[in-house]
Amino acid sequence: MEEGHDELARPRGVEARGDPGQQLAFADRIRAILAEAIPGSTAELRGSLAAGDADVYSDIDLGWVVPDEQFGEALGCVSTALASVAPLVSFRSDPDNQRSPYLRRLFVRFAGLPLLWRLDLEVWAASVACDPAAGDDPSARGDEWCPYESALMNALGAIKQVLRGRPEVAQDGLTRGFHRVGADPRLDLSPRDRVIELADLVAAARPHLRTFASDITTAAVQELR
């Protein structure tokens, strides 16, 4: 289910963060589009947006509950529905449940929006909605996954954690990112320089991710003084 949309045309100068009010309005547009795509479904806020404590570094967490008999139809139309809100740059499915008949966890990046506005969307069949046991099925695991893009997400997450005053969490994320691409971080570098080094490694190894890597490098330079 993973799709390689990483080099779609996108505006340059993409910001890392945006206005929380605009982010909430964008999330509400997604919710409305999803509910319209599958009659009888509901799309709700999750995480910090739902709790009302989102900050300028928060991503967008949504849960979409669809009738069981329309789960397959929902999976078939979700990328098109999301693209009607804003063009997609990347659309990926968590490998842990790629073959599940009840659940998908999708990670979506949109063109022209703040880098931190990634959408984390859980699609559930209504009969098991939000049941942790439904997501714990080893037989549902797939193998479509790009560790290099995940490494870039670790780099972006590290920027977020440094800005939130959590340098240890940032370091853990960067270490995971380097390990995803078979490398070790240089601990003598600053968090900013480690982010840039990781982005450079990914850009060199995976040309289709160069735009994303460049955006992360720019964010590191601008945000991590």
TrEMBL record:
* InterPro entries xrefs: NT_sf
Q: Please identify the protein, giving its name as recorded.
A: Nucleotidyltransferase domain-containing protein
Organism annotation: Actinopolymorpha singaporensis
